[in-house]
Amino acid sequence: MEMDRAKIPISLDPILLRAARKTYQTYSQLHSKLPKIPLGVVINRYNYRGHLIFRKKPILLPGESFIPLNQLEEQFY
Fold first, then answer.
1. 70: Cβ–Cβ under 8 A, 6 or more apart, which residues?
2. Is the pTM of this model over 0.70?
3. How far apart are CA 71 and CA 1, in angstroms?
4. Domain span including residue 60
């Protein structure tokens, strides 16, 4: 029986999560009328810069972490 990996909670570094949330919030505020919803945010673990990902299966560089949108939204509620 194969487990659905999307439902397994992943423990993330709170600093990375905060940086990803800030990146996502900025995008949401500036582009609230755009219909395109990102799949998540990629955060650089060294300088905490982030960018939104709109494609499935993002390609990460060494030192980057992907935080899916569902984990970002869980933090808001």
1. 6
2. yes
3. 25
4. 13-76
* Count of structural domains, the chain: 1
Tokens standing for 44?
A: 């650089």
Contact 58, 38 (CB under 8 A): no
Residue 41 has what DSSP assignment? E
Average pLDDT over residues 29-37: 79
CA dist., res. 27 & res. 43, Å (int):
14
Could you tell me how many residues make up the chain?
Answer: 77
Angle at which helices 69-76 and 14-30 pack, to 10 degrees? 90
Residue 54 lies in a domain: yes
pLDDT class for 10, splitting at 50, 70, 90?
A: low
Q: Check pLDDT > 90 for residue 9.
A: no
